[in-house]
Amino acid sequence: MDSSHLVDPELKPLLALFPTMTLTAENLEPMRARRLPMPAGDPVPVELTRLSVPGPAGAPEVPLHIYRPSGAEKPLPTILHLHGGGYVAGSADTLEPVHRGLTHALQCMIVSADYRLAPETAFPGNVEDAYAALAWTATKGAEHGIDIGRIGVMGESAGGGLAAALALLARDRGEYPLAFQHLIYPMLDDRTCVLADPHPYAGEFVWNADSNRFGWASLLGQAPGSADVSPYAAAARAEDLGGLPPTFIATGALDLFLEEDLEYARRLMRAGVAVELHVYPGAFHAFNVVPGAAVASNARRDSLEALRRALHPKAG
User: Fold this and answer.
1) How many structural domains compose the chain?
2) For residue 39, what pLDDT is reported?
3) Can 5 be counted among the known catalytic residues?
4) pTM of the predicted model as reported, rounded to 2 decimal places
């Protein structure tokens, strides 16, 4: 595979700062220490509260980072955010600059959950932690200024896949309705690991096929592509996508998850779900963090405006 000629030239600096490394059990800990370069942003008047809430039965509490615009007086619509990291890495605190900026720009609250990681905790630990975070947000969030009538879920990469799985679980349990799901290059389908005819130009950079196989095997505790994988682990496995909330999906044309994301969007539309879909040319996984690149700026703008519409819908 050589897709370098297809990469948007303005994105290439990220490849020098964050060269592609294949994830393995041997290098998992140093990989967990790696950090994508995040835009620093300007200081904004946002309050951050850290607390832990009850987890699933018999499991540890779930740490939450709760962002609120300083001085806000009324209940605010809220994003429940789930971080990325291939299901095996990442944490809520790495996105603090981004979450502060979004909270201020959107005049909303963000609840960012530190769910348990694989392989130390296999499925369903991650999605049950996410559900516990949703349950707290929907039942106790009003005490912290959350409008419990408008809660949506958002995530990038594995966080996007987990957000999609949480949306399915919330639909099926019927306890806490979601207003929207906002999925950025989501990791949705373990069967991508075993495709007989994989995309010839997708997945060369940042997150490759071997890392993907390691991430899924760690989460599932078995080989990806097996017959009995739950849709609450890999949302693309769900047979019925009806009744899910309005959905935003964005991905890059060179992202390993391109085709699974396109297929999920297609199936959502056929199930009668409102979908906004964006595919960005010349873009690989995590491209939207690159400062100064037009395609990354466009992706951040599209995401921001979609969130604004979802959080603050105009009266019809």
Assistant:
1) 1
2) 63
3) no
4) 0.97
